[in-house]
Amino acid sequence: MRGIARLAKELGISTGTVSRALNGKRDVSEETRRKVLEAAARLGYAPNQAARALAQGTTRSIGFMIELDPETAASSDYFFMGVFDGVQSVLTRHGLDLLVLPCPTTQDRYQYLERFVARGVVDGIILASTQRVDPRVDLLQSVGIPFVTLGRSTSGDGYSWIDLDFEGVVNTAMDRFVSQGHSRIAVTLPYGGVNFGAVFEQAYRAALRRHGLDFDPHLVFETRRNEQAGYRLVDKMIALDVPPTAILLIYEVAAIGIYRRLAELGLVPGQDLAVIAFRDEPTVRFLEPSVTCFSVSLRDIGVSIAEAILAQFPAHAGAYPSGIVQKLCHLELRAGKSDGPARH
Asked: Domain containing 26: what range?
């Protein structure tokens, strides 16, 4: 344990009190301030300059923390590039810069973020890959730095977030499948504790109930973000006593592997297995038959994120008087030929 959290534990007070004492806030008693400063000196932690920079907004930079993983790089996922474009387009108008903070898989995400907060490298933080329970949210709220998350979390309270409308995607896809006569509908979920996986599954279960269909855990598959995952998934599905006739993919790149394996088995997407993918990406755009999927403006997402964080700065609140922003970004269905009527 290092940084503000260590000081708080050492003194038996909250991280918020430690942060306010280091920032020179008036709502902290002189006795508490003295103890915090003495403990900081004794433990070799001296964030005073960084804290002042954060409080005054002097770095003129906003940090965007993302998590690096081999699958994201290998899948040519351009999601963040589109979002970055939208964020920077807003920040540039105010003379601010976007700094990408890539956290490697070998690094603890909490410690990584804490280090940047303590150093005062940026005036505000944008968090991606939010976890179902995410201590980073609690950290940012405790130190009082402006922040917004790309994705929701059960951690924290009353903070700004922008997220994709996963519930809307699942409802639209499930309604489409059921209207085509499908009742054995599989779904894929991401590995790990990312919150959108839990949201996706909850919406899937709710849609099944709404259509009077039973939930079958054998139709829920955790997958990686790569083509091989889709390839292996086909064998898992056809090995079931009653295979599904349709599948909703959280990672669209898996459709490449599904198409390949189905072709090897003499089966056809859209006829022998209905497929709907989450997002429209270049990696699947030219598959035949064309993939039914959903589209969203990544740039608009970035714009919403930037406006949500600028609304928390007094200097920009007049231009962006939104206060706390909690927004779901709608995705439009793009009908292809990969999802057809169920064969009985």
From this structure: 1-46
